[in-house]
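Reading a protein record of the kind used here takes only a little practice. The integers have meaning only within a learned vocabulary of local backbone shapes. With that in mind, consider the following protein and its fold in token form:
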Amino acid sequence: MTRMPRVTGKKAVSALKAAGFIIIRVSGSHHHLYKPGSNLVTVPVHAGETLSPVLIKSILEQAGLTFEEFIKLL
């Protein structure tokens, strides 16, 4: 198994958009995305900071995506 990628919040949002999620609102630095039939996903977008592997895992669980699907979307 490959290691969890180090991505920024902006790149994670782009990957989720490619998976069919849409941004429904932005509260400060947190982007809230939604896809019909899925949960609400919250991604912190802080300028240039990478997301921790634990946070990426949480985002993937919220989105209902597997690690492999996320890697393909990046």
Observations:
- The CA atoms of residues 25 and 32 lie 5 Å apart.
- The beta strands are 22-27, 30-34, 41-44.
- The mean pLDDT is 92.
- The first strand starts at residue 22 and ends at 27.
